[in-house]
Each structure stands twice: as structure tokens, then as C-alpha cells.
């Protein structure tokens, strides 16, 4: 099984969260302000799609590590 692919999620307010995409497509994002909390979604698109203004993910963009 391939390894998870790491990415950086930049929030609209300038904070940066770290995450990983797994082979089956689901993603996990770690919340650095809350060490024991992660968000899990079925895909990166699903994680960031259609979030209302004011939501912590509104306007977030992902970039992949090389």
C-alpha cells in the first residue's frame, strides 16, 4: 500500500495546518491549536468545498509537499 501523501492547508486567516491524503482518498488534518484533535474527510475537495464564510475552512487552499 502506498504511503500517505502529506500536504499543507493554508487557512484564509494565515494559519497553516498539516494534513495527509491516504491511498483511498480520505484526508486527515491536524489542528495545531488543539494537539489531540484532527478532522477527517472523504477527500480534500469534500473538506474544503462550500464552507460558509466564517467557517475555519472557508477559503483554505492546499499545497503538496515535494
Describe, in plain words, how this protein is organized in 3D:
Helix content is 8%, strand content 36%. The protein has one domain (5-64). The mean pLDDT is 92. A hairpin with a 7-residue loop joins strand 3 and strand 4. Strands 4-3-2-1-5 form a five-stranded antiparallel beta sheet. It starts with a strand and ends with a strand. The chain is mainly β and 66 residues long. It has one helix at 44-48, and strands at 5-10, 16-21, 27-30, 38-41, 61-64.
What's the domain count?
1
**What fraction strand?**
35-45%
Element pattern in H and E? EEEEHE
Secondary structure category: mainly beta
Largest sheet: 5 strands, antiparallel
- Which oligomeric state applies? single chain
Helices, strands, pairings?
Elements: E1 5-10, E2 16-21, E3 27-30, E4 38-41, H1 44-48, E5 61-64
Antiparallel strand pairs: 1-2, 1-5, 2-3, 3-4
Short descriptors:
single chain; 66 residues; mainly beta; five-stranded antiparallel β-sheet; globular
Amino acid at each position: 500500500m502506498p504511503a500517505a501523501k502529506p500536504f499543507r492547508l493554508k487557512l484564509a486567516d494565515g494559519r497553516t495546518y498539516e494534513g495527509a491524503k491516504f491511498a483511498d482518498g480520505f484526508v486527515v488534518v491536524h489542528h495545531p491549536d488543539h494537539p489531540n484533535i484532527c478532522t477527517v474527510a472523504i477527500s480534500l475537495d469534500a473538506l474544503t468545498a462550500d464552507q460558509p464564510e466564517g467557517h475555519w475552512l472557508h477559503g483554505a487552499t492546499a499545497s503538496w509537499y515535494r
